[in-house]
Design goal:
The complex is a heterodimer. Chain A contains 9 helices and no strands. Chain A is mainly α. Chain A is globular and about 55 Å long. The two termini of chain A are 16 Å apart. Chain B is an alpha+beta fold. Chain B is elongated and about 75 Å long. The termini of chain B are far apart. The chains are: A mainly alpha, B alpha+beta. Chain B: Belongs to the steroid 5-alpha reductase family.
Chain lengths: 238, 309
């Protein structure tokens, strides 16, 4: 489905736009982290830390929908369906749970989730941008393919905890659900949906994680014999 | 009549077997020879390719019906082998994927006490007419599909990887339960009865059209022929994948007739997949029938769903 084009050498206007997009996201998530840390300095109130970061996180997550379009139009070598599902997962955790059920903001997993997301994105987006500019330093590639080992599992556990803790509120407040009877004969019990998602989460997450592990072993393996050429190529693909 | 010895290698360059064959033998016969050497790899599971040439990502796939000499193979030539994994007959897959919905949907109609526990369901004779028509239509549709599998369809490929069986059955069984749950729900709200009757009558017309399309397609090739042909007659004069047109309209009418969002989602999912297949087929036929060197030119036609595609 994705054409085998050299995305890092595409038309300058497209690359320019993508560099700009990645810069905005990279800077944005840095601001999110800074806001969280600054709120944390003032006091250990988890809700304030979350709210400080969420000011940025909401917009960044909203804007991230663009990545589905990037994948759909082929300017980024990625599957639009995968992107959509990942976006949906994050949007659900952020908007439906952390923002939609304010009581959850007092739990550690709410601000922790934002911090973990921020740390991950502060590495990932600049990495994409610099790849497009053929100016990506080796240490950033190293970070990109190692930081996730800690951040990913932490992130997914925080998300799952948040969802788990939110279930009682979904039920008691009848949130985000449609009931029958209605004219179009459709029902959607959000609590049941989330319970199913919680079962699927580890399986879906593992698919993602293992593909990153495979990329990691490919990208970070630079045999000494092949020298500079291999190391440079390792930073260029993706 | 030249005896040649071929070097069958794995993708990593390891020689798996040296096979002595006649250059006039077919690829199919070569595969049988390898199967005799290695019992695990029955012919349907073998993919043989030429090594990749300059600039190619991978080499040309060897067709079962072609002669080895057609690929310029001589003694010492390398042929690459790939294991396609456990294979299963197309007709077996089709049977299981259609049998599921045939059985699953009526369960929701006949056994509401199981699927809607604690909710009061009407006795069968008091059910809305739409629910009765819908279950009959649904079962007819899947029974028709099973019939076509064994008596109408002629398959281009004989087998597919076994993991497709699980993937396909999940899709069909999942959606069957999803649609059946809502149409047969005790709290189901039936649309206007006349509207439903008209929709289902038209849907049956679509079923027959679809069947006619399938018989036209199966008659395109005589037994043993493998060449692509330009379909013609009936709706095929205007649409490349007219069978999909009839199928999609059938489900659209089912959705309107039952006023059920779940049916709409099922229709959309099917249409999306069929669009992918249709585009591929349309492109292939246009590329093959380019009007050059005495070949026919593929006529201007819709792909699958006028006026959108």
């Amino acid at each position: 489905m994705t054409k085998h084009r050299d995305h890092n050498n595409a038309h300058p206007a497209i690359r320019g736009y993508l560099v700009l997009y990645n810069a905005v996201q990279g800077i944005g998530w840095s601001l999110c982290l800074a806001a969280c840390l600054s709120a944390a300095e003032k006091g250990p109130d988890r809700q304030s830390i979350f709210l400080a970061g969420s000011v940025y996180a909401r917009w960044l997550q909203f804007a991230a929908f663009a990545e589905i379009l990037h994948a759909g139009t082929g300017i980024v070598p990625s599957s639009p369906v995968t992107n959509f599902l990942q976006w949906l997962g994050r949007a659900n955790a952020l908007f439906m749970f952390a923002v939609g059920i304010p009581e959850l903001q007092h739990l550690s997993c709410a601000p922790l989730m934002l911090i973990v997301w921020s740390l991950g994105e502060m590495i990932r987006y600049p990495w994409y941008g610099l790849q497009l500019l053929h100016a990506c330093p080796a240490w950033l590639t190293w970070l990109r393919y190692n930081a996730f080992l800690l951040l990913y599992p932490t992130g997914v556990v925080s998300e799952m905890l948040l969802l788990w803790k939110g279930l009682p509120y979904l039920r008691s407040r009848d949130l985000y659900s449609i009931h029958m009877p209605n004219k179009y004969n459709f029902a959607w019990d959000y609590a049941i949906f989330i319970q199913i998602m919680l079962v699927l989460y580890p399986y879906l997450w593992w698919g993602n994680f293992s593909s990153l592990l495979r990329q990691r072993s490919k990208k970070l393996k630079a045999p000494v014999a092949a020298g500079g050429q291999r190391a440079a190529a390792a930073g260029k693909e993706d | 009549m030249t005896l040649i010895s071929l070097d069958l290698q794995s993708r990593s360059g390891k020689t798996l077997a040296k096979l002595d064959v006649d250059s006039e033998d077919t690829v199919g016969q070569l595969k049988k020879k390898f199967h005799a050497v290695n019992k695990k790899y029955y012919p349907a599971r073998q993919r043989m390719t030429l090594p990749a040439k300059e600039g190619q990502k991978s080499g040309e796939v060897l067709k079962d019906s072609a002669k080895l000499s057609e690929y310029g193979l001589s003694s010492g030539s390398v042929v690459l082998f790939k294991d396609l994994g456990t294979q299963i007959d197309y007709s077996t897959v089709f049977f299981f994927e259609y049998f599921g919905p045939l059985v699953i949907y009526p369960l929701f109609f006949f056994l509401p006490q199981i699927f809607y526990p604690g909710q009061k369901a009407l006795p069968l004779d008091q059910r809305p007419l739409v629910q009765k028509i819908a279950v009959a239509y649904w079962m007819f549709h899947y029974a028709k599909r099973i019939f076509e599998t064994y008596f109408v369809h002629t398959f281009g490929h004989a087998t597919m990887p076994i993991k497709n069986l699980f993937k396909n059955c999940s899709y069909y069984y999942g959606f069957a339960a999803f649609v059946a749950y809502f149409v047969n729900h005790p709290a189901y709200t039936a649309p206007d009865e006349t509207l439903s009757l008209v929709c289902f009558a038209l849907a049956m017309v679509c079923q027959f059209s679809n069947f006619r399309c399938h018989t036209i397609l199966s008659n395109l090739r005589a037994p043993g022929e493998t060449a692509y042909k330009i379909p013609s007659g009936f709706l095929f004069n205007y649409i490349t994948c007219a069978n999909y047109t009839a199928e999609i309209w059938g489900w659209i009418l089912f959705t309107i007739g039952t006023h059920t969002i779940a049916a709409g989602l099922f229709t959309a999912a099917g249409a999306f997949q069929m669009a992918e297949w249709a585009r591929g087929k349309h492109k292939r036929l246009q590329k093959l029938f380019d009007g050059k060197d005495g070949r026919q030119k593929y006529p201007k036609r819709w792909v699958m769903f006028p006026p959108l595609l």
